[in-house]
Structures are given as C-alpha cells and as structure tokens.
Write a sequence for this structure.
C-alpha cells in the first residue's frame, strides 16, 4: 500500500512547520523521516495519521485520497512519541483495546491478539502487566497494539527513544525484521541518523519543514545533496579547499586528492574514513589528538589552521605530535544552496 504526500503544508503558531512537502513511500517499504528536533517530523506524521489537518496539499494511500478522513477511519496506525502502555491493563487488554472499540466478537479479538503477540515474540507475556516486562518488550507491545489493527500504513514516532543504547539496537532490528515479515508500509520518525541509516529502505532528511534529500541510506551517506545533509548524517569534515587536479590545498597545506571535484575553490566534505594518514617526518600535518573508539581510532589532525578528523585502524603507531602525510581518497561536493 503506497503512500503519497503531495504538496502538503502546515502552519502552526504563525510559523510554517511543514513546507510544501512531497514524498512517495512505495508499498512495503520502511522510510525514515530524519532531522533535528523541531524540524516538523511529528507534525508530518500526525498529518499522515489524520490527527492534524494539512492547510494545503493531499495525502493518498493506495491511490485513495484520505486527506479529509478521521484517524480511526484511516488505514493507518500510529505509535506515538513517548506513548506508554496503560499500566493497569494486561498486555492482552492493551492490545485488544482498539479491536474492542471496533466491536469485534470476543473470540476474534482473542485470536488476533494471540497472533500479533506471536509475531512480536511475546506470547508468554499475554497476561503480564506492562510494569513487569522490560522496556524493549513494552516497545514491542506498543508495536503489536498498532499492528493488530491491520493498518495499511504503520506510523512510528521515535519508537526507540526511551530505550538504552544496547536495547535500542536490538529493538531496532526487531522492528525491521517484523516490518519485513509483515510487509507493511512504514514511516518511522527519528532524529538518530544511525537508526535511520540502519533500518530504512529510504531516508528523507528534513530540515525546517522541508526534505533536503530522499534516497537509500548508502546514497544519503556517500552522496549528500546539501551541506546540511552532509553535516547531519555521519561525521563529516567540512572544508573550504582549492582543488587542483590530484592536489588539494587546505589553507597553506597541500595534500594528495583522489576524489572527483572541479578545479578551483570548493566547499567539500570528507568522511573521516576517506582520510588516509601515514607517519612521515616531513609530512605537512600533525596528529593533535588520538581518541580510542574500540575497533577504530579517531585522529584529529591539524593542517595549518584547519582541523581534519580521520578514522584509522586501531594499532597504527600514531601518537599525539606525530608528523603525518595525508591523502584524501574521496570527497562529497554538493549543489550550492
Ligand atoms: N500546536 C502547535 N502550535 C504551535 N507550534 C507547534 C505546535 N505543534 C508543534 N509546533 C512547533 O512546530 C515545530 C515542529 O514540531 P514537531 O513536533 O513536528 O517537531 P519534531 O521534528 O517532531 O521534533 P522532535 O524531534 O523534538 O520531536 C516545533 O517548533 C514546535 O514547537
Ligand atoms: Mg517529534
């Protein structure tokens, strides 16, 4: 079931929060809305779910215009940001709630709840109270509560924000696995680029109510279309440099350059893993910081006035003060904005 957002805008409190947005989510795909706090992610999701009416534009699900349809009659289900389960109800009752509102027969409700609990691997907790199960399990119950309504489009607003780092990764993988198994079209909101890159088919990077780039994760990472995307997604060295064939002048310092960019002064972005560093007593750069990151080491290099971050394999014999030679393997160049 595809979702089309067509020229949707929303003004709240006198400010344009969502600005003429277009987005197409193909059937069965998981798409993330990724952007900093306040950029309009939740507002967009609430409009898709019908909790907020767009000022202009249309929303289509499976080709059908749903713009004027109320949330409960819309083929969507939303897991809200920081939405807790009802503590006084068992897992069964939490999940059954929406089906009861729909006045389904008891036996059918029972069957559907059992089935969805099986999907999220929580059958053994059917009679547990939310307070007695782990945070990750609670999040899966919240997911089950949405899935049981058999929506065509599943909407998840920061579903992992309440979990600690380790658990976040696990539940993230669970969500992806369940989403693929059920084959449900999903829009997930997050401000965590790592999360967006790791579970999405495509990522829409938002800023100020607009989408700067909408591409598969690898493309967003390797070929950011704007400086904002380059800076927001992953670690990026942003430099003003002068390209001259296979040389790059960063301030006074010249380094070897194997990327593709037009000659002349450019604003470029260089991923730390694309910075090659080797000890060289005559090298033009110096290691000013060494940060141990476990399976890799982060170096801060100074090239004259400029700073450059490099990720190198752990074990390299580079210490603070080492003079080094630097090569830049590739660079991102974006459209002027
Ligand atoms: N009802 C409202 N009236 C006025 N302003 C609002 C209203 N709802 C949201 N806003 C503003 O719209 C902007 C976008 O809000 P939104 O909740 O969509 O952001 P978000 O991208 O989800 O951010 P976060 O990552 O913090 O959840 C914010 O500046 C917020 O203050
Ligand atoms: Mg939000």
């Amino acid at each position: 079931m595809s979702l089309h957002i067509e020229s949707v805008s929303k003004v709240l409190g006198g400010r344009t929060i969502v600005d003429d947005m277009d987005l197409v989510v193909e059937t069965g795909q998981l798409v993330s809305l990724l952007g900093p706090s306040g950029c309009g992610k939740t507002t967009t999701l609430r409009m898709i779910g019908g909790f907020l009416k767009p000022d202009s534009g249309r929303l289509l699900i499976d080709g059908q215009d749903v713009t004027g349809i109320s949330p409960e009659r819309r083929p969507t289900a939303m897991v809200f940001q920081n939405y807790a389960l009802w503590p006084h109800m068992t897992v069964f009752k939490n999940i059954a709630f929406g089906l009861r509102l729909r006045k389904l027969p008891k036996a059918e409700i029972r069957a559907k709840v059992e089935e969805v609990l099986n999907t999220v691997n929580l059958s053994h907790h059917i009679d547990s109270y939310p307070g007695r199960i782990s945070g990750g399990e609670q999040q899966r119950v919240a997911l089950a509560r949405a899935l049981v309504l058999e929506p065509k489009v599943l909407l998840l607003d920061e579903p992992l924000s309440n979990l600690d780092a380790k658990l976040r990764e696990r539940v993230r993988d669970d969500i992806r696995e369940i989403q693929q198994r059920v084959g449900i079209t999903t829009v997930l909101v997050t401000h965590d680029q790592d999360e967006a890159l790791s579970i999405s088919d495509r990522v829409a990077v938002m800023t100020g109510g607009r989408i700067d780039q909408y591409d598969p994760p690898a493309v967003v990472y390797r070929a950011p279309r704007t400086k904002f995307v380059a800076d927001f997604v992953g670690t990026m060295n942003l430099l003003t440099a002068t390209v001259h064939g296979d040389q790059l002048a960063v301030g006074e310092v010249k380094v070897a350059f194997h990327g593709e960019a037009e000659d002349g002064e450019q604003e470029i972005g260089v991923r730390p893993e694309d910075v090659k560093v080797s000890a060289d007593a005559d090298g033009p750069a110096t290691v000013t910081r060494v940060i141990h990151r476990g399976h890799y080491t982060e170096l801060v290099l100074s090239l004259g006035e400029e700073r450059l971050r490099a990720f190198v394999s752990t074990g390299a014999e580079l210490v603070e003060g080492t003079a080094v030679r630097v090569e830049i393997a590739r660079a991102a160049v974006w459209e002027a904005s």
Remarks:
- The longest strand covers residues 15-25.
